């Protein structure tokens, strides 16, 4: 049995967090102000794949109530080909009925006309309040300047990342350069960041030569151990979308394993940036379960703790309340002997063999924003990490005050 | 399909909320101060069944990490016979290892010796902080005065209910008199009330002549639609216990259906009192799902909404945010067509056929503490109600400040 896992599922690849989607060759981007937001900040982003390849992979929310743009985009990416992604903040276009789907469709048509491509190759993403129709006059007027602003430089990548922000305090960017090819991306949202519904939107780009099938496998593997294990408040959005576009512009066909690691490393970096920018949060919490029988059971245990409001409020109060960890563990179906579990918080094993361990006074939660919780089930050799935040007054404030 | 279900699963039986466990004949009770709590308030309760029958039924937490008193009491009630229940607040005796189990065992021995009965007929319940050993010197010294104080009058029932309070602001009592027999009870805890871990302790008494098998069936049926649908913060305690003692002192053997309805009505009243006394809460929320294919699916849908932090903070902010209701519904496996769901909040159908319904401005959430949410799946004819509270600043405050 291993005592400690590698928390970064991709190991230690170098990530540049100053560069976004345009770090990969063959891509242009823009971020402009169309007027969806009352605040007057940028709210329309475009990412265009200039090829020569136009492969795409995507992962969408598993929420059965999905927004119109998700329904549209699912159909677009089903054939593994896309040329552009258009994203707006200031309105989720979710639960908007037939009119909402028409709006997503029409948005894709307008982008397709402006770029000289088919509407069926345009992915659409929206974020904001549910149950409000998207103002299509704003979209129509805003798209021409957005297309006009398209550029392939670093500033354009940053501008696109800024235009998809809602309550994010900073844009989230990440890029990794491999052997002649690059994987890059931008993200917004997650949990407390996005009181509108915690919508997470991620656009990844690569100039590697990769088939759409290989692209989909790499993306699914990466999302599974990064975004899907970032569980800020247990709430699942109607709009979550992660899309990966490949231009092939590097002319290099990477090793599949190396490419997968790069995609995972970029996703991991973006997921960590999302957790770290959760405005309502005072602590970033990393919950790792080790020595489970299966990875799935390890994930269940970590996630159960990540979703316990009692545990999350205790961490906010700088209280290493391991009883609340154990009580969350006890609600899972994972294999374990209750009298053998150890819980270690910030290096102090406060619970040993299911009972009182080292003195809880030895745990310092006030010194650092980062908190690590290690749960040793002593049942097998599988592990999994889930990242979350504490539950704070600011979380309640942001999420109660949002739409009123 | 029915439009509205009966929210009280027991119909409209008359409940006296001023009388506790001594309302049923054949029972004595006491509530005294042993000294488990630093506050000096009562913290030791006894309920004694003087017969002639000594039937018992019990339902315990399904948390796999269960406290020592739960492990002890499971064994005690397995044979359907018990003569007394001893309960302490000021310490949960959970995650306390072999020493903790010895403490529960020794407590039962001491009570048995004082009452002239076997330790194997004494149920033990504890509530308070996890991971702290129960001070047995306090227990030993406290039991003699507790036995001394035993009485069969109404005041003794109230005193017992007071002695199990933690952060409860009032004792919870309920009694129903049927055709010559009575079902009565007391409760403490639930959700935000009990930051220690939301421990819920309930002791019910009846003077009806009922076999322990029939008692168990009636109790399980009642708990299923009352306490198990009271979901204040989604956290499950290591100590939850509901125990029903039957003395047979009325000499009346009731109709099984009528008896079951009475047990359900008393449990429903106690569960509502728990929700209403949740100190951190500003709203009591009743979430009813109608026209589901099965009752289990209706319960899943109601519970999913009850556990959404985003929905619960919205209600705190007096925001009828139906998008957060739908997004929680969408995470369940219940059968429904997303384009047919209606959501009605306080009588206003804000979502109709999965899209925008009547104006949300018509919903007044500030006027009353009680909020009703009705979700119509239009898929079958089953329904279920789950009761919860909103997520407030006071919840965060109480649960972060508790043990530090």
From TrEMBL, chains A, B:
The record marks 127-128 as: Involved in the stabilization of negative charge on the oxyanion by the formation of the oxyanion hole. It is found in: Cytoplasm. InterPro entries: Arg_biosynth_ArgJ (IPR002813), ArgJ-like_dom_sf (IPR016117), ArgJ_beta_C (IPR042195). Pfam families: ArgJ (PF01960). Transmembrane segments: none annotated. The record marks 198-199 as: Cleavage. The keyword Amino-acid biosynthesis applies. Heterotetramer of two alpha and two beta chains. Belongs to the ArgJ family. This is Arginine biosynthesis bifunctional protein ArgJ.
